[in-house]
Specification:
An 8-stranded mixed β-sheet has the order 1-2-4-3-5-6-7-8, with helices on both faces. Strands 9-10 form a two-stranded antiparallel sheet. The protein contains 11 helices and 10 strands. It starts with a helix and ends with a helix. The chain has about 300 residues and is an alpha/beta fold. The chain has a single domain, classed as Rossmann fold. A hairpin with a 3-residue loop joins strand 9 and strand 10. The protein is globular. Helix content is about 40%, strand content about 20%.
C-alpha cells in the first residue's frame, strides 16, 4: 500500500511539474516541433550570380487564404535547420506571413536533416566547418529568397524581411548593412529579427566596419549569460549612428538557444571554445511577445 501511495505521489508530482513546465513554455512541446518539421512545402529557389549561383532548397510556410501577405526569409545557424526554428516559422505563418526557410547546407550537399537536435553527429561535423558556406554567401542566399518571394502573387513584394539564428542572424544583419549594394527591387529587406547573432565576433570582422549603417528596423534577442555574446558589443551597437530603430533585448540568466526546449548542456567549438545551451522559459515567453510586437508594428499596420 505504501508503495502504491508513493507511486501515486510521484505521478501527481510529475503531472504538476509537467503542466507547470508546459505553462512556462507557453504550451510548446516536442510534438509541436515534430508537427512544424512535417507541415511545410519543399521549394526550389533559383540561385543568384552574385554568389555561387547554386539553386537552393527551401521550406515554405503559408497562412490560410490567398493574400497577398508580408513575408520573412529565415536563415539557419552553423548547425543547420533545427525543429525549434521551424516551429518559429510555422507560428509566424499563423500570424499572416509567408515564411521561406532557406536550407543553405542541404542545397550544397552538406546536411539535410531538419528533425534532429544538436546531439546529431552530422550537425557537429558541419558546425566545425560552418564557413564552407560563408556569411557573404548566406547573404546571397537571402537575396535569392527575396527575388523568389517577390515573384509570388500571394506575397506583398514590398514587405519582405529577414529572421535568423546565430550565424543566420549574423548574415541577416550583414544583409541590412550591405543593402545599398544589393540593388533589390521594391525597397529591399523590410527589417530583421535575429536571435543571438554573434555580434562580438561580427564586430571583429573588418567587413563590419567597411559596410554601411543598418537602415531598417531590427530586433535582436540574446542571453546575457551566453559566453558567445557580450553586453558591451550591444552597447557599442546602440551607440553607433544607425538611422533605423534597433531594439536589443538581453535576457539575464539565459544562455545560447534559450528559445529551444532542452536541458542545460555544454558544447564546444574549435574557434569559440566551450559554451552552454539551455531553454529559459521566461526569456522564451518574452521573445514570443517581442517578435509578435515587432511583426505587428513593422508589417501588419
Amino acid at each position: 500500500m505504501k508503495i502504491l501511495s508513493k507511486m501515486f505521489s510521484v505521478f501527481c508530482s510529475f503531472i504538476f511539474f509537467g503542466v507547470l513546465w508546459l505553462h512556462d513554455a507557453r504550451g510548446v512541446t516536442f510534438g509541436d516541433y515534430k508537427a512544424a518539421v512535417a507541415d511545410n512545402h519543399k521549394v526550389q529557389i533559383p540561385g543568384v550570380s552574385q554568389g555561387d549561383g547554386k539553386d537552393l532548397e527551401g521550406r515554405l510556410y503559408k497562412p490560410e487564404g490567398n493574400g497577398p501577405f508580408p513575408a520573412l526569409i529565415a536563415l539557419h545557424g552553423a548547425g543547420g535547420i533545427f525543429p525549434y526554428q521551424l516551429w518559429w516559422a510555422k507560428e509566424i505563418s499563423k500570424k499572416g506571413f509567408v515564411v521561406l526557410f532557406i536550407d543553405s547546407y542541404c542545397s550544397r550537399g552538406y546536411l539535410c536533416a531538419h528533425d534532429t537536435d544538436d546531439n546529431d553527429p552530422r550537425r557537429k561535423k558541419i558546425m566545425q566547418v560552418w564557413q564552407k558556406v560563408s556569411p557573404r554567401q548566406r547573404v546571397m542566399d537571402a537575396v535569392a529568397g527575396y527575388r523568389f518571394l517577390s515573384q509570388k502573387s500571394n506575397v506583398k513584394n514590398d514587405q519582405i524581411g529577414l529572421i535568423g539564428w546565430s550565424w543566420g542572424g549574423s548574415s541577416a544583419l550583414f544583409a541590412l548593412k550591405v543593402a545599398r549594394r544589393l540593388s533589390l527591387p521594391n525597397g529591399g529587406f523590410k527589417g530583421t529579427i535575429t536571435f543571438y547573432p554573434n555580434l562580438k565576433h561580427l564586430k571583429g570582422n573588418p567587413q563590419w566596419t567597411r559596410t554601411g549603417p543598418i537602415g531598417q528596423p531590427t530586433l535582436i534577442l540574446y542571453g546575457k549569460d551566453d559566453v558567445l555574446e557580450s553586453v558591451e558589443s550591444y552597447k557599442e551597437l546602440m551607440a553607433e549612428e544607425n538611422p533605423a530603430l534597433i531594439n536589443v533585448v538581453g535576457y539575464a540568466g539565459a544562455t545560447r538557444k534559450f528559445d529551444e526546449l532542452g536541458e542545460l548542456r555544454t558544447k564546444s567549438h574549435p574557434s569559440a571554445g566551450e559554451f552552454t545551451k539551455a531553454f529559459h522559459s521566461s526569456s522564451f515567453e518574452d521573445a514570443v511577445k517581442k517578435v509578435d510586437e515587432f511583426l505587428t508594428k513593422n508589417y501588419l499596420k
